[in-house]
Structures are given as structure tokens and as C-alpha cells.
Write a structure and sequence with these properties.
The protein has 90 residues and is of the alpha/beta class. The protein contains 3 helices and 5 strands. The protein has a 3-stranded parallel beta sheet. Strands 2-4 form a two-stranded parallel ribbon.
Length: 90
Amino acid sequence: MDYFASPYRSLAVQVLGRRGGVTSYMEQWGFRWRDLHDAHPRLLRVMLYDPAVQDIDSTATAIGEAVCDYFGPYDNVTRLHDLLDTASKK
């Protein structure tokens, strides 16, 4: 086991499963993340992607960074560990 967390705050994770450009997909998820945040303000929002599979342009990045606590590649282990630490603290 690499990591165990007993979260104090809920963590929602969406993994981008589409290939290629994702800007229109990100626009849809932008609204979903805001709705979730409105309903659950303490929810940590995470969206992961594979840079080898998805084309993340500046618009998709701007949307993701605006509505997520972490929007980035799935292999940024340090950042993901930091999020799990944040989720487990009061």
C-alpha cells in the first residue's frame, strides 16, 4: 500500500477518458464542478488526465484550474499526495 487516507473532507475525482481535444468536455464539467461546489463547499475537486492521450489546450487548462482544486496529469504524485493530506486534515 502506497497511501492510506481517512478523509475529513470529501474528495471527488474525475478521470478524463476522452482522446484528443477536450475543451467542450471541460466546458460541460465546469458547470458540473460548480454545481457540486455550491452543494458541497468543502468538497475537494480533482480532475486527472493523461498528457499522452488528451490534448489539453490553454482553454481546457483555464477551465480546469478555475473549477478544480487540482487539474493536472495523473502522474503528479507529489501534488496528489498533498491533496490527500489536505482531505485528511480538519
